[in-house]
Amino acid sequence: MKEITLQAKMDNLNPVIDMIEKELERFSCPMEVLTQISIACEEIFVNIACYGYTPDEGDAVVSIDITGNSPKRCVIIFDDSGHQFNPLEKPDPDVTLAAVERPIGGLGIYMVKNTMDDVSYEYINGHNILTITKSFN
User: What span, in angstroms and rounded, lies between the C-alpha atoms of 61 and 78?
Assistant: First the structure.
C-alpha cells in the first residue's frame, strides 16, 4: 500500500495524481482504466481541497492498494477531517438536460460513481472516508 499525507489544497493535486498513476503503471493498468481512476481521484481531491475545510485548512490522506492477479483490484481511500459530508447522498444530476439548464455541482461525483466499480463513504471519529474501487486485468 502507498500513502501520502498532504495539505488539502489545489497545489497538492499533482503529487496525489502522480502517486496514483505511478502505482497503477507499476501494476500494468490499462490506459483506459488508469485515466478513469485518475479523473475520479482528481474530482474527489479537488472537492476536499475546495470545500472540505473552508474557511480553514487541513490535511488529506490518500492511500492506494492494488491486490490480486486476474483481475487486479485497486482500492483508493481519501481520508480527511474536514466538514462532515457524504457526497453519495447528493442526488445525481439530470444528464438529459442541456449543460446550461443543469444546476452547478454534482457532475464530478456522478462521474466517479459511474466509472468506478464501487464507491463508499463512512464518517468515523471525525473523519470523512471515501473509498473507490476499480478492477482491471
Answer: 6
Q: Which CATH class is domain 2-136?
A: alpha beta
Domain-by-domain residue ranges, the chain?
A: 2-136
CB 15 within 8 A of CB 30: no
Question: For every one of its 137 residues, what pLDDT tens digit does the chain have, with 9 covering 90 and above?
Answer: 999 999 999 999 999 999 999 999 999 999 999 999 999 999 999 999 999 999 999 999 999 999 999 899 999 999 999 999 999 998 776 777 777 776 666 678 999 999 999 999 999 999 999 999 999 99
pTM, rounded to two decimals: 0.91
Q: How many residues are there in the chain?
A: 137
